[in-house]
Design goal:
The chain is of the alpha+beta class and 167 residues long. The protein has a single domain, classed as endopeptidase domain like (from Nostoc punctiforme) (endopeptidase fold (from Nostoc punctiforme), Alpha-Beta Complex). Helices cover 29% and strands 22% of the residues. The protein contains five helices and eight strands. A six-stranded antiparallel sheet has the order 3-8-4-5-6-7. The radius of gyration is 15 Å and the shape is globular.
């Protein structure tokens, strides 16, 4: 029983440091063309549109957290970013938080714009990702509330902010 509890706790705290759901995962484009596209995206032209991000939120709102998930029955934070980018922008991103941290150009928190990716360190090795919205808010998946919009000034998120990138 003790080993099972430890395993459950480890899965919970690693949260969004997930691997793709092997059944539902679509192949991610890793070609040089894709990487060129992502790295050459003009920062003055928003690929993401806040209105579309809010519509996306309404479609997925409350969808529960599920480690490695990519469906309306459950998904994790990197899965939400993966699906949102695919639906709203086009090309695929890496499926994991670790892969998503390597994309785009790192930006200062004061420069955040709708659609920027925001990363948090939730535990020693646990990482979390969301999509920035105006008003210092971000779209993400909570382990307790599912797909939600949270304030980056929230007492939980503010001290865990790690960095942001623009793709």
């Amino acid at each position: 029983m003790g080993k099972l509890l430890v395993l459950i706790v480890l899965l919970f705290i690693s949260a969004c440091s997930s691997q793709p759901d092997p059944v539902r995962h679509q192949s991610t484009i890793h070609s040089a063309t894709h990487l060129e596209y992502v790295s050459s995206a003009k920062t003055d032209t928003q690929l993401w549109n806040e209105v579309k991000l809010l519509q996306f939120h309404r479609q997925w709102q409350g969808t529960p957290y599920r480690y490695g998930g990519l469906t309306k029955s459950g998904l994790d934070c990197s899965g939400l970013v993966y699906i949102a980018y695919q639906d709203l922008v086009g090309p695929s991103l890496p499926r994991t938080v670790k892969g998503q941290t390597t994309l785009g150009k790192k930006i200062n928190r004061s420069e955040l714009q709708s659609g920027d990716l925001v990363f948090f360190k939730t535990t020693g090795s646990g990482r979390h990702v969301g999509v920035y919205l105006s008003g210092n808010r971000f779209l993400h998946v909570s382990t307790k509330k599912g797909v939600i919009i949270s304030s980056m000034d929230n007492v939980y998120w503010k001290p865990r902010y790690w960095f942001a990138s623009r793709i």
